[in-house]
Amino acid sequence: MNAEEILNQIAAEVAVCTRCPLHKSRKKAVPGEGPANSEIMFIGEGPGFHENEQGRPFVGAAGQFLDQLLARAGLKRSEVWIGNVVKCRPPDNRDPFPEELATCDDYLERQIAAINPKIIVTLGRFSMAKFLPGAKISAVHGQMRRVGDRFVIAMFHPAAALHNLNLRPLILADFAKLPQLLEQARRELDRSTPAPQAPKQEPKQLSLF
Ligand code: URA
């Protein structure tokens, strides 16, 4: 299966998932969306009211702000992958429970493996904690860290910046740095990827005739 087929397969599983109690109160699961060859994945927390209605990530007020932030980074929504650490809405938008995060993690891990992005941008503390355990958002926001074969940038959650106006200039400035960070990630990953080996040449037979 190619990456797109794997993502479709995961989305089909998520749509009918009953692995944790969140499925009981959901209307639509939200697997995430975007091109299978995205260089950047944006990973939020979990669906809210509008996402639960539509089955699509970041389509409410936080999503509209995310669109503005993407524009600030010169990115279109259609060229990045956007999803969440939990695929079903926690009732009343409460924080996801550790068991829910752990159960849903398999889907996200498979999505990351299929897409193999250069950069993962975490939106919010649950997503940040998955990749940068113990990090404090006030200390690390907007900075790029290498995590295994890729880079992780923790950003404030767009909803937090909608509610706390002091965070707005910070998140705008962090997103404005994304093009330059993406260039840096491309360069560093190119450098650390071993060049393809030239096929072994058989020693030439010397002909005397
Ligand atoms: N907030 C999130 O973390 N994810 C969404 O999809 C919507 C709002």
What can you tell me about this protein's structure?
By secondary structure, the protein is α/β, with parallel strands linked by helices. The protein has one domain (11-186): Uracil-DNA glycosylase-like domain (Uracil-DNA Glycosylase, subunit E). 45% of the residues lie in helices and 11% in strands. It has 10 helices and 5 strands; from the N terminus they run H-H-E-H-H-E-H-E-H-H-E-E-H-H-H. It has helices spanning 3-15, 22-25, 49-54, 61-72, 98-115, 125-131, 137-140, 158-163, 168-176, 178-192, and strands at 40-44, 81-84, 119-123, 144-147, 150-155. The chain has a 5-stranded mixed sheet with strand order 2-1-3-5-4, with helices on both faces. A hairpin with a 2-residue loop joins strand 4 and strand 5. Helix 1 (3-15) packs antiparallel against helix 5 (98-115). Bound molecules: uracil. Uracil is lined by residues 44-48, 51, 57-58, 62-63, 84, 123-124, 159.
What's the N-to-C terminus distance? Answer: 52 Å
Portion in strands = 5-15%
CATH architecture descriptor: 3-Layer(aba) Sandwich
Structural class: alpha/beta
Number of helices: 10
List the keywords.
alpha/beta, 209 residues, 5-stranded mixed β-sheet, 5 strands, 11% strand, globular
Give a quick rundown of the structure.
With 209 residues, this protein is an alpha/beta fold. The protein contains 10 helices and 5 strands; from the N terminus they run ααβααβαβααββααα. The protein has one domain (11-186): Uracil-DNA Glycosylase, subunit E.
